[in-house]
Amino acid sequence: MALALRTMRDDDLPQVLAIEQAGSPAPWSPRIFHDCLREGHHCRVVEVDGGVAAFTIYSLVAGELHLFNIAVAPAQRRRGLARQMLTQVLNEAAASGCRAAWLEVRASNEAAITLYEQLGFIQVGVRKAYYPAYAGREDALQFSLEPLPVVESPAP
Ligand SMILES: CC(C)(COP(=O)(O)OP(=O)(O)OC[C@H]1O[C@@H](n2cnc3c(N)ncnc32)[C@H](O)[C@@H]1OP(=O)(O)O)[C@@H](O)C(=O)NCCC(=O)NCCS
What we know:
Radius of gyration: 15 Å
Structural class: alpha+beta
Distance between the termini: 20 Å
Largest sheet: 7 strands, mixed
Oligomer: single chain
Strand content: 35-45%
Helix content: 25-40%
Bound molecules: coenzyme A
Number of domains: 1
């Protein structure tokens, strides 16, 4: 069954922040999430058993998808949630005419890198010492996917 992605609401933010804080060495502040909602970025959540289990934030601008953030609650990981979320987002982007997707990821984030490579992303660059890390700073790896997967037309 297709995963139900819905638009993030202000009242989701406490759960979204808990997921963010569990998943990043330098978590986004509440202010950044508020700004994303106010600026009209695509902010989506997935619910499991009535609670927010995962979220993603991205933009679709000038024919490109930019993935800003994606995270899954620790208890819900390795169940395919992130892969299904991203697949839906890529399909939405392709259907809206986007030609390419871009993202950045910490060099140490093996889980996310494996996920992106599984979906066909390839590494196209490095930003040296881009992210704050637990100790010092860490490189950002830049990944892209182009062209986006072709979306199957629904049966007539
Ligand atoms: C990265 C993250 C979003 C993956 O979410 P998830 O729902 O657990 O991922 P999925 O179950 O959809 O996994 C899809 C594939 O990604 C890879 N993967 C996911 N977690 C992995 C891990 N811990 N180690 C190695 N590969 C992993 C696997 O190839 C997996 O496929 P498989 O289960 O068939 O082997 C999750 O670990 C997370 O929230 N991490 C903290 C936040 C973060 O790092 N976000 C990315 C910022 S760029």
